[in-house]
Design brief:
The chain contains nine helices and eleven strands. The chain is of the alpha/beta class. Helix 4 runs antiparallel to helix 5. The mean pLDDT is 94. Bound molecules: adenosine-5'-triphosphate.
C-alpha cells in the first residue's frame, strides 16, 4: 500500500526551482533514506510534501485536510530546540493531539502510546524532567518520542540522527527500522552514509533538482554515484552485519 506519492512535484525557493518534476512513491514497510549533498533539497522535499511550503504538482499528503494530515504523518524537523519549559511527558503527550477531540483528555490508548514512545527512546527516567533543561541530544530524543507517540502510518524525519551519540544513533536507527518492519513508512534525511547503508531498505538520492538514484543501498552506493554526487570515494562492502559504507576521501 502506498502511504505517500509525489507526482510531477516541483518546488521553487527564491527565483529557482530547487526540485523539478519529482515522482516518488513510498509504500508501507519501507525505510527510505533521503540522501544528497548540502542544499540538494531534502528538507524542501519533505516540508513541501507535507504542505508546509508552496509547490507545483501533486503530493498525496498536502492534498489532505490539516487534521487528517496530522493523523497520517508525523514530522520531526531539523531544529531540535524545545521552546517551552514543560515536562518531557507533556512534550511527548503533544504527539497525541491529532487523535483527540478539542478539549478531550488523553485516555488509555494515548497513555499506552506515550509510554511506548518514552521507552523506545530510553526516556522513562526523564518523564518529569523539564524538557528545556535537557542536553541537545536528550531534547532530540524527546522530540523523536513525540513523533513516535503520534503513531501515524508515515514518519518523516529531517536528520534525526544529528547530534546523537553513537549508541543513541544506532538505537534510533534500530527503532525507525523496527517501525518500518511493523508496516509504517519511514522517510529520513541522512548525511551519515554508513547509517543509511546499514539500516534503510531504500535510498533516494537528490541531486541537481532531481532524483539521481533510487533503490536498495547496495545498488545506489556505487563508486560512480559517490564520486559524482558526493565527491567522495568510500569503502562499500556487504558484510554479515549488513552493508557498510565508510567514506575514505574527497575526490
Ligand atoms: N528561503 C530561501 N530562499 C531561497 N533559497 C532557499 C531558501 N531556503 C533554502 N533555499 C535553498 O534551497 C536549496 C535546498 O535547501 P534544503 O534546505 O532543502 O537542502 P537540504 O538538502 O536539506 O540541505 P542540508 O543537507 O544542508 O540540510 C538550497 O540551495 C538552499 O540554499
Amino acid at each position: 500500500m502506498s502511504e505517500f506519492t509525489l507526482s510531477d512535484f516541483s518546488v521553487a525557493r527564491g527565483p529557482c526551482d530547487v526540485l523539478r518534476d519529482i515522482d516518488l512513491t513510498v509504500g508501507a514497510g519501507e525505510f527510505v533514506g533521503l540522501l544528497g549533498p548540502n542544499g540538494a533539497g531534502k528538507t524542501t522535499l519533505m516540508r513541501a510534501a507535507l504542505g508546509m511550503m508552496p509547490h507545483r504538482g501533486r503530493s498525496t499528503l498536502s492534498a489532505l485536510p490539516v487534521a487528517e494530515r496530522a493523523r497520517r504523518a508525523a514530522w520531526l524537523p531539523q531544529a531540535r530546540e524545545i521552546g517551552w519549559p514543560i515536562s518531557v511527558e507533556d512534550v511527548v503527550t503533544l504527539g497525541r493531539l491529532p487523535h483527540l477531540a478539542r478539549g478531550q483528555k488523553p485516555g488509555g490508548a494515548d497513555r499506552a502510546a506515550i509510554d511506548k514512545a518514552l521507552a523506545r527512546m530510553g526516556l522513562e527516567g526523564f518523564r518529569t524532567r523539564i524538557a528545556t533543561q535537557l542536553s541537545g541530544g536528550e531534547q532530540a530524543r524527546v522530540l523523536i518520542a513525540r513523533a513516535l507517540a503520534q503513531d501515524t502510518p508515515l514518519l518523516m524525519a529531517d536528520e534525526p540522527a544529528a547530534g546523537l551519540d553513537p549508541a543513541h544513533q544506532l538505537g534510533l536507527m534500530d527503532t525507525l527500522a523496527a517501525e518500518a518492519a511493523r508496516g509504517r513508512s519511514v522517510i529520513a534525511s541522512l548525511h551519515d552514509l554508513g547509517l543509511a547503508a546499514r539500516y534503510c531498505t531504500r535510498l533516494v538520492v537528490l541531486w541537481q533538482g532531481g532524483i539521481a538514484a533510487d533503490g536498495p543501498p547496495q545498488e545506489v552506493l556505487t563508486p560512480d554515484l559517490l564520486a559524482r554526487v558526493f565527491q567522495i570515494r568510500a569503502y562499500v562492502r556487504q558484510t554479515d552485519d549488513g552493508p557498510i559504507c565508510q567514506p575514505l576521501g574527497v575526490v
